[in-house]
Write a structure and sequence with these properties.
Radius of gyration: 36 Å
Shape: elongated
Largest sheet: 9 strands, mixed
Length: 855
C-alpha cells in the first residue's frame, strides 16, 4: 500500500518544514519523539491503493492501443470491403493479422511493466520505526506522516523527514541535488530555501554516509521532493518507424488502388459485367496491401527488447528500441553514471604541487603515510564507517603507502574521532623515536593549527609567502571540485592520552584530494557513441571545473564549452536553443534547468536520450525522446520516468541498446524490402497479365496465399534477427536515413522488378505449354519461389530464415499438388514441365539478385 500525503491539523507547504523547530513540527503532526500509536498510524493509511509505481492495464486495453498503426484503417477497410463482396476468408485473414499484431504488442507492454514492478519490489527499503512502546521494521512504503524513524550509516532515507536528532550525521544527496560531496546535517532550523541548503531535513532517495539520525516523517510517496520531481506525463511525438510506415502507406495504398482501377477499366472496356469487374479489381487492391507491414516493426522491436533484457536493459515499451536507433544526442548525468558514484582518492599534494595518485613519487607517498596514521583505528579488518576515511585508506594502500613508512615501529595509542563540528581526525602513536601526533581534516581547521610546513626542500615557517602558496594549492584543488584534506604531524610528549588541547603547533606535510572517479569503461563507451554519430552532453549539478575535467578525461569536449546553471538562467528559450549545440557540459544545473536543456535540444530537431539515476534527473528523463534510468541504484523517481531501465552499472549497456536499435532498423529494412518489393512485383505481374489476357491471372485468394508464404514467415524471421554477418561498428552506421532511405527504395525496386519478371516469364511459358489455369498456377509458384530465393540471398546464413523459406516452399507444393486444396485457391496440380518452368524462373531471379547485390 502506498502511503500518501494526508491532511494535518494545519496545511503546511512541503517547503516549510525545514524552517520550523522540531517541537513545532511534532505538534503539527500530532506526533512525539516516541512516534505515533499504531491506531493513529492505521488511520493515516488510505482506504485503497492510490496509484502504483507503474500503470497497470489489462491485455485488452494494451492491445487496443497497439492498433494505432498507419495501415490499420486501410486494412480494416479492406477487410470490410472483402466481406461485403463475399470474400469472408480474405477478410478473416486480414483481421487475424491485425489482431495478432495488436496482441503481441500488448502482451509485451504488460510483461515489461510487470518485470519492472518485480525489480522495484525486490529493492524495497525497510526502515526502523518507533511506534510508541515498540521499535519495529517496516517497508518504506508503509510509512505515514508523524512516524519517527531511526537511521544509521548505510541506510537509505525512506521519506522526507525533519531531523529530531543528528549525531555526526553526513548524507550523500547526489541522487537529489547532483552534488557528489557529503552534506553535514544538524537539527537546527534552516530558513534557506534551496533543497541543498536545508541542513535539518533529510530526503527520500538519499543515503546516510556517516553518523546516526532520528527524524519525523513529513512527506511520503509522490509528495516528497523526489516524488515531485517526476512531473506529469509527457506526450511524445510519433516515432520514426510509425512516421516511415505512414509515408510508405501513403504510397502503397494508392498503388494498390490504382492497380485495381486499371483492371476495372480494362475489364469494362472488354465488355465484362460491372459486378464481376468491380469484384476482381477490389479483390486485387485489398490482396495487394502488405498485411504484414505494421507487424514487422512490432516483431523487430519485441525481439530486440528481449535480447536487451538478457543483457541488463529492461524496455518498458518495445517502440523505445527504434527510438534508440534514432538517438542523436545523449545527455549523461555525471554522478553515478559517467562516474562510479563514490568518493575516491584522486590526487596528492606536498603543499607545493599536486600529482595524480597513479603518478606519485616518494615525497607524495610520505604524505599518504601521514594520512594513514591520521585515519581511524580498526580491528580485525573491520570496514571504516566513514566513506572519506575508506577512500583515503584504500587509495593510500593501493599506491603502496603504509602507516610506518619513515616511522619504523609506529603503533597507534589513542585517537580523537572526526565530528563535523570538530573538522578533523587525530591519532596519537608511538614509534622508535618517540610519540607522534597525526591529524587529517578540513584545510581551514588544520592549517590554523600549523606553524611549519615540510616543504620538499626543507622545513619552513608556515607564514607569509609560504602560507599563501599552501593556501593557493588547496584552493586550486577545491575549485576543481575535489574534497581536500590537510595532513599534519608533530612530535608529541610521552603522555598517552589525546584531547583537543594537544592539536596545536603542527607541521603541514601535504594534502589529499578526493573525488568521484570516472568509470573504467566510460571512455570507451563515449567513443563508441561518438562513432555512431551520437553527441554526448554532460548535465550535472556538480562543480563546473570537476565536470569539465571529467569531460576532458572522456574526450567528450570536442571544442565545445562549459555552461553553468547561472549562465543558463540568463538566456531565454530562443537564445538557449541557439547556444545549446555549442555546449558539451552543463554544470551546477537544477532539475528544471535539465528539462530546459532537453527542450532546447529538441527545438533543434534533435532526438534526445537522457540518462540518470537520481530523482533530480526524473523531469528530464520523462521529457526526453528516450529516458534511461541507469544503474541498480536508480531511484524510484528515475525508474518511473524512464522508457529504458538499465539494471546493471555498465555504461556499455547503453551502447548495446543503441546497437540493437540500429540492428532493428537494418532488420526492418530487409523485411520491408520483402513486403513492399514483393507486393509491388505481384501488382506488376497481375496488371501486366491482366492487360494481356482478359481472363486475368491470379485471384485475390491466390495473392493472399503468396503474401502468407513470402511475407508472414520469412519477413518475420528476418525482423526478429539482426544481420548475421554485420559487426557492431557497422550497425552503429545504420539508422533511419541509412536504413530506410535510398537503400530501402533501391531494394524495393530491385525486388519488385525481379519478382514481376520471373512471374511474367513463367506465366508466358506456361500459357504457351498449357491451359490458362496451369499458367496461373506456374506463375503462382514462380512468384513465391522468386521472392523466397531473393530472401535467401539476403539472409541465407540465418538458420531461422532458411527454415521458414523451406517451410513455405513445402506448404506451397502441398497446396498446389493437393487437388481439393488446389481448387480452393483457384489452382490446379502441376505436371513436371510446369514445375521445371517455375524452378527455372526462380533460379534465374535468385542468381540475378545475387549478382546485383554483389555489384
Amino acid at each position: 500500500m502506498q502511503a500518501v500525503w494526508r491532511p494535518v491539523p494545519r496545511a503546511v507547504p512541503r517547503t516549510a518544514w525545514h524552517a520550523m523547530a522540531p517541537g513545532t513540527v511534532l505538534e503539527l503532526l500530532d506526533s512525539s519523539p516516541e512516534g505515533l500509536t499504531d491506531d493513529a498510524a492505521h488511520q493515516r493509511f488510505p482506504d485503497h491503493d492510490e496509484g502504483a509505481d507503474f500503470r497497470r492495464m489489462g491485455v485488452l486495453r494494451a492491445s487496443l492501443e497497439e492498433l494505432a498503426s498507419p495501415l490499420t484503417p486501410a486494412l480494416a477497410g479492406g477487410a470490410a470491403i472483402s466481406a461485403s463482396i463475399g470474400a469472408v476468408a480474405d477478410a478473416t485473414i486480414i483481421l487475424g493479422v491485425l489482431g495478432m499484431n495488436a496482441l503481441i504488442g500488448g502482451v509485451q507492454r504488460i510483461t515489461a511493466d510487470r518485470a519492472l514492478n518485480k525489480l522495484l519490489a525486490a529493492s524495497v527499503v525497510r526502515v526502523v520505526v518507533r511506534r510508541k512502546e515498540n521499535v519495529t521494521q517496516l517497508p518504506a512504503d508503509q510509512l505515514v506522516l508523524g512516524d519517527v524513524v531511526e537511521l544509521v550509516a548505510g541506510d537509505a532515507v525512506p521519506a522526507d523527514c525533519r531531523l529530531l536528532e543528528a549525531d555526526g550525521l553526513e548524507l550523500d544527496e547526489s541522487s537529489l541535488t547532483g552534488e557528489s560531496m557529503l552534506v553535514t546535517k544538524t537539527v537546527t532550523a534552516t530558513p534557506a530555501v534551496p533543497v541543498a541548503d536545508r541542513t535539518c531535513m533529510i530526503y527520500r532517495g538519499t543515503a546516510v554516509a556517516a553518523g546516526r539520525a532520528v527524524g519525523v516523517v513529513v512527506a511520503t510517496g509522490a509528495n516528497t521532493e523526489a516524488g515531485s520531481a517526476i512531473g506529469p506525463e509527457v506526450r511524445r511525438g510519433a516515432d520514426g518507424v510509425a512516421a516511415r510506415l505512414q509515408t510508405l502507406a501513403k504510397v502503397t495504398i494508392p498503388v494498390c488502388l490504382g492497380a485495381g482501377g486499371i483492371l476495372l477499366v480494362t475489364d469494362i472496356l472488354r465488355g465484362r459485367p460491372l459486378g464481376t469487374s468491380l469484384g476482381r479489381s477490389v479483390s486485387l487492391a485489398v490482396a495487394a496491401v502488405p498485411e504484414g507491414l505494421p507487424f514487422v516493426a512490432t516483431v523487430a522491436e519485441l525481439a530486440a527488447a528481449r535480447r536487451l533484457s538478457k543483457r541488463g536493459a529492461l524496455v518498458r515499451n518495445s517502440a523505445t528500441i527504434e527510438a534508440l536507433g534514432r538517438a542523436q544526442v545523449l545527455c549523461f548525468d555525471k554522478t553515478g553514471t559517467l562516474t562510479e558514484g563514490r568518493i575516491a582518492l584522486r590526487r596528492v599534494s606536498d603543499g607545493a604541487s599536486s600529482r595524480w595518485l597513479e603518478d606519485i613519487s616518494t615525497v607524495e607517498r610520505r604524505v599518504l603515510a601521514g594520512a594513514l596514521r591520521a585515519s581511524p583505528l580498526v580491528d580485525n579488518g573491520e570496514l571504516l564507517p566513514h566513506p572519506t576515511d575508506r577512500a583515503v585508506v584504500d587509495g593510500a594502500r593501493g599506491a603502496g603507502a603504509y602507516p610506518d613508512d619513515g616511522k619504523e615501529g609506529w603503533v597507534p595509542i589513542d585517537e580523537t574521532p572526526f565530528e563535523p563540528s570538530r573538522g578533523y581526525h587525530a591519532v596519537l602513536g608511538t614509534f622508535s623515536d618517540g610519540n607522534l601526533l597525526s591529524v587529517k581534516g578540513a584545510p581551514e581547521i588544520v592549517l590554523a593549527q600549523c606553524t611549519r610546513w615540510r616543504r620538499p626542500d626543507g622545513d619552513v615557517p608556515l607564514e607569509g609567502t609560504a602560507g599563501r602558496d599552501v593556501e593557493r594549492v588547496a584552493e586550486n584543488l577545491a575549485r576543481q571540485g575535489y574534497r581536500v584534506l590537510a595532513v599534519a604531524e608533530r612530535a608529541a610528549s610521552d603522555r598517552s592520552d589525546l584531547d583537543e588541547s594537544r592539536i596545536r603547533d603542527l607541521r603541514l606535510i601535504g594534502f589529499v584530494a578526493l573525488a568521484d572517479p570516472v568509470r573504467p569503461t566510460a571512455a570507451a563507451a563515449v567513443a563508441q557513441l561518438q562513432q555512431a554519430g551520437v553527441e554526448v552532453v554532460m548535465v550535472t549539478g556538480d562543480h563546473p571545473s570537476t565536470a569539465e575535467a571529467i569531460a576532458a578525461e572522456l574526450n567528450a569536449l570536442n571544442e565545445r564549452r562549459v555552461m553553468t546553471g547561472t549562465e543558463l538562467d540568463t538566456l531565454d528559450d530562443e537564445q538557449l536553443a541557439a547556444e545549446v549545440t555549442t555546449v558539451a557540459v552543463f554544470a551546477r544545473v537544477s532539475p528544471a534547468q535539465k528539462a530546459r536543456i532537453v527542450e532546447a535540444l529538441q527545438r533543434n530537431d534533435r532526438v534526445v536520450a537522457v540518462t540518470g539515476d537520481g530523482a533530480n534527473d526524473a523531469p528530464a528523463i520523462r521529457l526526453a525522446d528516450i529516458g534511461i534510468a541507469l544503474g541498480e541504484r536508480a531511484t524510484p523517481a528515475a525508474r518511473e520516468a524512464a522508457d529504458l531501465v538499465v539494471t546493471d552499472d555498465r555504461i556499455e549497456t547503453i551502447v548495446d541498446a543503441i546497437v540493437e536499435g540500429r540492428a532493428m532498423w537494418a532488420s526492418v529494412r530487409d523485411s520491408l524490402a520483402i513486403l513492399l518489393g514483393g507486393n509491388l512485383g505481384e501488382i506488376g505481374f497481375t496488371v501486366v497479365t491482366g492487360l494481356i489476357n482478359g481472363g486475368g491471372s491470379l485471384n485475390a485468394r491466390q495473392l493472399l496465399l503468396v503474401n502468407l508464404l513470402t511475407d508472414i514467415l520469412p519477413a518475420m524471421a528476418i525482423a526478429v534477427r539482426p544481420p548475421p554477418t554485420i559487426t557492431a561498428e557497422m550497425l552503429l552506421a545504420e539508422g533511419p536515413e541509412a536504413s530506410l532511405g535510398a537503400a530501402l527504395t533501391h531494394d524495393i525496386y530491385r525486388r519488385a522488378a525481379l519478382t514481376a519478371g520471373a512471374a511474367i516469364s513463367a506465366w508466358i511459358l506456361g500459357r504457351a505449354t498449357g491451359t490458362l489455369r496451369q499458367a496461373n498456377t506456374i506463375a503462382l509458384v514462380a512468384l513465391v519461389g522468386a521472392q523466397l530465393g531473393q530472401t535467401l540471398v539476403v539472409r541465407g546464413r540465418t538458420p531461422l530464415v532458411v527454415g521458414c523459406a523451406l517451410v513455405s516452399l513445402l506448404a506451397l507444393a502441398a497446396i498446389v499438388q493437393t487437388p481439393g486444396l488446389s481448387q480452393f485457391f483457384g489452382s490446379s496440380p502441376l505436371l513436371p514441365h510446369g514445375w521445371m518452368i517455375a524452378a527455372g524462373a526462380t533460379t534465374a531471379a535468385t542468381a540475378l539478385s545475387l549478382l546485383l547485390q554483389q555489384w
